[in-house]
Amino acid sequence: MINRRDAIKSLVISVGGGSLLSACGGQVTLGALTPGAPPRFYGEREMAVVSRVSDLLLPRTETPGALDVHVPALLDQLMADWANNETQTAHRAALAALDTRLRASSRGDFLDATHVVAQQALTTVDAAAFAGDPTEGYRALKGLISQAYFATEEGALEERQWVAVPGRWEPCVDRS
User: Fold this and answer.
1) How far is the C-alpha of 93 from the C-alpha of 104, rounded, in Å?
2) pLDDT tens digit string along 57-113?
3) Distance between CA atoms of 46 and 94, rounded to whole angstroms?
């Protein structure tokens, strides 16, 4: 269950991230997107885990997926430029714990697992995290991934669309 402090922190991150990007005047440069440029915060394995989890949580469908809108690079930049040392340390520890759990759930290297096995491993970790198990930072990472996705132009404009529900609206209906 999310508490008020975490909700406010998440809101500040999403608003602050949007403000930061709008202040760039459309010239947003994500270091990890530059060809040949290594991630600025994440190590190679950490970036691979974040990328795989992002892709499994928000895959490409009719709309762009998390990898299409560069969510891992956005998180890398967020951690490198915004996060303080305490947040960075906690995030790295959470990623290491998540990687360990995903390896155990996939019975091998999560990054080399087939899509089906990786999806099952992530589903197992997800179910445990939302059943009250204090899974080391998984819920926070999942929140960051979804916030980063919906902070992008594609996530905000293509994914979040109002679709009219077919049928007639009747304000007064008899209960029987």
Assistant:
1) 17
2) 999 998 899 999 999 999 999 999 999 999 999 999 999 999 999 999 999 999 999
3) 10
**Nearest CA-CA partner of 105 in 87, 90, 125, 88:** 125
- Lookup: tokens for 132: 């009250």
Tokens representing residue 138 in the block = 């998984």
Which residues fall within 8 angstroms of residue 31, CB to CB, at 6 or more apart?
37, 39, 40, 73, 76, 77, 80
Which amino acid, one-letter code, is at 4?
A: R
- 165 Cβ contact partners less than 8 Å away, ≥ 6 residues apart: none
Q: Which residue type occupies 54?
A: S
Cα-Cα-Cα-Cα dihedral of 79, 158, 58, 14, to 10°?
30
Q: Model pTM?
A: 0.74
